[in-house]
Amino acid sequence: MRLWITLFTIMLFSASQAAERPNLLFIFMDDYGWKDTSYMGSDFYETPNIDALAEEGMIFTNAYSASANCAPARACLLSGQYTPRHEVYNVGTGPRGNAKHRRINFIPGVDTLNPDIATWAETLQGAGFHTATMGKWHLSDDPIPYGFDINVGGTHSGSPPKGYYAPHPRAPSLDEVPNDEYLTKTISLRAVDFIKENADNPWVLYLTHFAVHTPLDANKEYVAKYRAKEPGEIHNHVAMATMIESVDQSVGRLIKALEESGTRNNTIIVFFSDNGGYGPATDMAPLKGYKGTYYEGGIRVPFFVNWPGVVEGGQINETPIIGVDLYPTFCEMLGVGLPEQPLDGESLVPLLKGGEGKERSIYWHFPAYLQSYGVSHFEQRDPLFRSRPCSVVRRGDWKLLQFFESGDLELYNLVNDIGETTDLSQSNPEKLEELKKDLENWREAIGAPVPTEANPDFDAKAEAKAIESAFAKAAKKER
After folding, report:
1. Residues 435, 437, 441, 442: what is their CA dihedral angle, to the nearest 10 degrees?
2. How high is the pLDDT of residue 478?
3. What was the pLDDT predicted at 3?
4. Strands, DSSP E only, in 137-233?
5. 467 Cα distance to chain centroid
6. Which among 74, 2, 84, 107 has a CA at the least distance from the CA of 342?
7. In whole angstroms, what is the distance from residue 34 CA to residue 302 CA?
8. pLDDT score at 192
9. Tell me, what DSSP letter sits at residue 337?
């Protein structure tokens, strides 16, 4: 497979064509919520550099990650495949939450992306692009075999190497960093070097910041500023605000480097996030949910494309798109053929060039558990789990969630009810059956495993007691 990709893609281009190809700067955020930028409506966080890029490009307001948490979202993104194909369902393969509260046995899946799957990085590398990943990797011990020439900081770990300040033990290319230098800045400086060193070569940079993943390690440079700032109605978390500003300053450095190297007008910039925001520190209002839930706040994320000379600025696109779409999109943007393997997404290039999106279904499959952060105003279905095993489909204005433990179905019209406040499953039986059949057909076609085996450790009384106790604690805290 790898040899075929290399031979095929190299044959597509002459040396003169390669010289004219654009570069790709893909800024992929960690736990960056739908409203965590000023351009999307934050009333406390400040992101002027990101905002400027977004306003000069096309903003997608219905953009989705293919999973509600880190590792599976990244596996979907890199492979262009939904979770049942690569089988990365969760962060790790172990049980999550109290065994007495899990009604069925979860499906553990795998914790490493199958190296036989050709990533878009590998496909682009085979076509002659110089490739680099800088920041979080999370899919194996080493990203180099997956199509990257350079790795800065990427390991199997999903969290920053010992926090956001040095030292960063066992993190590639981060061993010599000043102790007072913030990790987001360090990674951006490495990215600036890469851009300048490759001014005469076609390149792809996967800039995958650890920010704003926990630990919520404030950037000391901006703490005083946000402590003095009037809290917003949506956002007011000081540490999170400093982390977000650090990302924005990173973007500013990159734009300056592109301009100084003379490659700004030949560089496509894509901005995306792996899942919704971290519930205890940020808010996706009016969306329901947060990281780890399959309500909108857990999977709908900021996304825009800045493509000089192709995408006219100031555009808002409401077409639903999803992370698996980026593989075919990147290949079409850069003029590279697709590999001979299943890809579940569709190229966004027609939309970016002014075309109309056709209605289609997009899917999520999560046959596992994610434990709760603890009861707060962020909790959705129950206080014990952010998500229980489920599948989800969105088609047009409608979204259906199917929960495997109970067989419960929830139906929402997202255009009329973006906050998923009113379950329409009882009042719209025809739409319910249509989407349920759609979801079942998709699972059968893709070979999605559905957990059905009862968990012998489940204790209904213990579960009921835990739920009662959690709500009692929440009520006491609110008083």
Report:
1. 20
2. 63
3. 44
4. 150-152, 203-208
5. 30
6. 84
7. 5
8. 98
9. P
* Residue type present at position 72: P
Spatial CB neighbours of 32, under 8 Å, sequence gap ≥ 6: 212, 244, 247, 273, 274, 277, 301, 302
Same-domain pairing of 60 and 189: yes
Q: Are 299 and 414 in contact (CB under 8 A)?
A: no
Assess whether 222 and 353 both reside in one domain.
Answer: yes
Q: Which residue has the tokens 């951006």?
A: 188
Both 379 and 438 in one domain: the answer is yes
Given this model, what pLDDT does residue 179 score? 86
337 and 389 together in one domain: no
Domain count, the chain: 2
Q: Are residues 30 and 208 in contact, defined by beta-carbon separation less than 8 angstroms?
A: yes
184 and 329 together in one domain: yes
The string of DSSP letters for 222-274 reads GHHHHHSSPPPSS---HHHHHHHHHHHHHHHHHHHHHHHHT-GGGEEEEEEES
Residue 95 lies in a domain: no
CATH number at residue 280: 3.40.720.10
Could you tell me the two tokens for 215? 């630990």
Q: For residue 170, give its domain range.
A: 2-81+117-357
Q: How far apart are CA 101 and CA 5, in angstroms?
A: 47
Do 353 and 373 share a structural domain?
no
Parts of the chain with a pLDDT under 50: 1-19, 378
Instruction: State residue 20's pLDDT score.
Output: 77
Angle at 312 between CA 207 and CA 261, to 5 degrees: 45
**Domain shared by 369 and 321, yes or no:** no
Which residues contact residue 368 at a Cβ distance below 8 angstroms, ignoring those fewer than 6 apart? 89, 90, 96, 106, 107, 108, 109, 389
pTM for this entry = 0.94
Residue 7 region, left (φ>0) first, then alpha (ψ -120 to 50), else beta?
Answer: alpha
Cβ proximity of 318 and 63 under 8 Å:
no
Long-range pairs, 403-406, Cβ under 8 A, ≥24:
404/104, 404/367, 404/450, 404/451, 404/452, 405/103, 405/104, 406/103
Residues 213 and 282 both lie in one domain: yes
**Within-domain flag for 101:** no
Domain containing 442 — which CATH number?
Answer: 3.30.1120.10
State CA 58 to chain mean position distance.
Answer: 18
Q: Which two tokens stand for residue 41?
A: 């409506």
Q: Strand 385-387 and strand 303-306: pairing?
A: unpaired
What pLDDT does residue 474 have? Answer: 75
